[in-house]
Write a structure and sequence with these properties.
Layout: H1 8-20, H2 26-38, H3 42-45, H4 50-62, H5 64-72, H6 76-81, H7 87-97, H8 106-129, H9 135-158, E1 168-172, H10 174-177, E2 187-193, H11 200-215, E3 226-227, E4 240-242, H12 243-252, H13 256-262, E5 266-270, H14 272-286, H15 294-308, E6 316-317, H16 325-339, H17 351-359, H18 361-385, E7 391-392, H19 399-406, H20 412-436, H21 440-443
Parallel strand pairs: 2-3, 2-4
Antiparallel strand pairs: 1-2, 1-5, 6-7
Helix pairs in contact: 1-2, 2-4, 4-5, 4-8, 7-9, 8-9, 9-11, 12-14, 16-17, 16-20, 17-18, 18-19, 18-20
């Protein structure tokens, strides 16, 4: 039945138009408003606080695909109406303790994982785009959500063994390891095992099923893409490595780029304690090599720019290009390779925590401000694109919408200028460290630095 003219659902459509009026997202309201008026839960959303409603309107208008999904989910609009600044922390805590649905009905279980990820990601975007919570908190929540999906997938996959092995560990790398996830990020995972040679086939079967449970396309979509190429020997190596084998490889045979990647490794499911013990042993052997690491790190960075970045006339490379996010990542990871990792100062292996621990709070402040801004831009680019995009096309039709999500009222030209300034600032910090051959080149400006 269609809503009565002038009724509460008509009011929510009018509120949507007002929330987007005068912005580059206003054009989307014409198509979105009538759909919202007929959506289940629209009456509840009509009573949401202004910031929450604005976040919903902006998230839906910037991504028609996500809007279609949200408007079909019977309870999602009512959940959105209840969002507040504490929702991210409460929901993350609930995910930590909730084991999820019984995986005996595999089809329903897989759909449940995907719906969990899509619904909670949409709600996080409402919080983000409405300014209800800062992007750093949203990023941490998206990481907790991904970890919850990985834990549930491991639990289900372990049922394939007659006697589930408690010694299998899922280790997060990269953004997930540092709890700096964003929209549509991949899961960078490696798998470790505490058993002997005879246990490898069973452990590998569990790891393979976990990957399948997360990546298989169902009617509800895909939960996450998984990248396991950071395991020892990359794609040529075994999917699951023993703790002893991993320690030996990382201590004796790993290339410098593998040691850099290891800086942000963190166990998230399964045998967490044995993995932390193994990582501690590796850290003691591998990290703290002194300033001699920087020439090789600089050479790696040059190769990435030469081989993996396209002509920037086609778009701005937010991650891999000069002054991109990788500059900050390599500074943080390289500082640990040079000076070692102090868990007391950086208990979570995030880029900000690691760089502050090695370069000092004051010295890290400017490059981390540039890094935070580029991460914010990257998150909004991915939301608008609906995929893990890292290149920003200045001629893209949705650039105005993306600029509006970065900061209300921000013009595309101003966004591009700020991106250029952030990249120049990061590249200056990178050049300072590489030229001096030590992360202390940043720390010299900070009396409290190491």
């Amino acid at each position: 039945m269609r809503p009565a003219v002038g009724g509460p659902t008509s009011a929510v459509a009018a509120r949507l138009r007002r929330a987007l009026a005068g912005t580059p997202l206003a054009a989307a309201a014409d198509a979105l408003a009538p759909q919202l008026a007929e959506a289940p839960g629209a009456d509840a959303l009509a009573a949401a606080p202004d910031a929450v409603f604005s976040g919903f309107a902006r998230a839906a208008a910037a991504s028609p695909e996500q809007a279609r999904f949200a408007l079909r989910r019977r309870s999602l609009l009512a959940r959105a109406a209840e969002l507040d600044p504490g929702w991210l922390a409460r929901r993350a805590a609930a995910l930590e303790t909730d084991a999820g649905a019984d995986p005996t009905d595999l089809e329903s279980f897989l759909d449940g994982l995907r719906l969990l990820r899509r619904e909670d990601m949409f709600l996080a975007a409402c919080v983000d785009f409405g300014g209800v919570a800062p992007f750093e908190e949203v990023s941490g929540f998206l990481s907790s959500l991904a970890e919850a999906v990985a834990r549930r997938a491991l639990q289900a996959a372990s049922r394939s063994l007659p006697e589930p092995d408690p010694e299998l560990a899922v280790v997060a790398m990269g953004k997930l390891g540092g709890r700096e996830f964003t929209y549509h990020s991949d899961l960078d995972l490696i798998f470790l095992h505490g058993g002997g040679v005879e246990a490898v086939p069973g452990a590998s079967r569990v790891a393979q099923r976990l990957i399948s449970y997360v990546t298989t396309m169902t009617g509800a979509g895909m939960a996450y893409a998984v990248d396991s190429r950071l395991r020892p020997s990359g794609k040529q190596g075994m999917l699951v490595t023993s703790f002893d084998g991993f320690i030996a490889y990382q201590s004796e045979n790993a290339a410098t780029w593998e040691s850099l990647a290891l800086v942000r490794a963190r166990p998230i499911a399964g045998a967490v304690a044995p993995t932390e013990a193994a990582l501690d042993r590796i850290h003691a052997r591998v990290f703290g090599r002194g300033p001699g690491v920087w020439p090789e790190i600089a050479d790696m960075r040059r190769r990435v720019e030469r081989e993996r970045t396209a002509d920037e006339a086609r778009g701005v490379e937010l991650k891999l290009g000069p002054g991109g996010l990788m500059d900050a990542e390599f500074l943080a990871e390289g500082g640990v390779l040079e000076l070692g990792r102090d868990r007391a100062r950086a208990p979570l292996p995030s880029v900000p925590a690691l760089l502050r621990a090695t370069a000092g709070e004051a010295a890290a402040a400017a490059p981390l401000a540039h890094y935070a801004f580029l991460r914010r831009v990257e998150g909004r680019l991915r939301w608008c694109a609906g995929r893990a995009e890292e290149r920003l096309d200045p001629s893209h039709a949705r650039l105005e919408a993306m600029a509006e999500l970065v900061e209300p009222g921000l013009a595309p030209a101003a966004l591009l200028e700020r991106i250029a300034a952030a990249r120049a600032g990061l590249r200056a910090a990178w050049n300072e460290v590489v030229t001096a051959g030590t992360i202390r080149a940043l720390a010299a400006a900070d009396p409290g630095g190491r």
